[in-house]
Amino acid sequence: MRTKTWLWTKKIGRVSGRLALAGTFLSGVIAQDAPSAFAQQAGPTAIKLERGHELALFMHTTVDSESSKVGDRVEFELARAVMSGNQIALPAGLVVTARVTKVRHAGKSNCKRGAVDWKLDPMIAPDGTKVELVSLRGRYNQMDDPDKVHFTTTNEKIEKVAEAPFLAVVFLLILPAEIIMAVGETSGVAPCGSQPGAPDIVAARTTQYAAVAHDVNIEVLSSSTAN
Fold first, then answer.
1. How far apart are CA 145 and CA 150, in angstroms?
2. 61 and 17 inside one domain
3. Could you give the residue ranges of the DSSP H alpha helices within the chain?
């Protein structure tokens, strides 16, 4: 009887040992596979935002040539997410700030319009990268595609400098005719008199536009995808 009990105890011990060894092996396999699976799921991906990429900004602050002052803070938020394929490079709702850089009051008696402008601060991407922005208010109308603005390159600037002497000669030749035409056009226009000029007002809850000033790489998680 004691011999049988000893044999059964020995068999149970062997089985328990094998089960423990198998459990240890499986735990090691799971531990090795889990980090790699997590890395594939949540690893960062670099996305390049190109210079000139256009952004829509929803304005939260009213700016007025008659009441705003240079240095005043202006607040926006990114109105639409910036996508790269199906990945979200910049999510909608990111805060964007600016500072008023130009204020010109409207003329009180000479019909001169008021003017106001601002300079955008760098936008901070979710990964902490600073994205330099340029305001598109009243400039950069030439578009390379629906989401990109054309900035003048160094080569284009050099070409314009080279063309300057020729353009100056042409201008001098046509200047007298232009003066005669201008006098004729203004002769029938009523003078301004003492009318005040119109103020420049940019109301809150309107959409303004900006562009990325320089190429920049942003890291996003692979889970940051559009549904």
1. 9
2. no
3. 2-42, 154-186
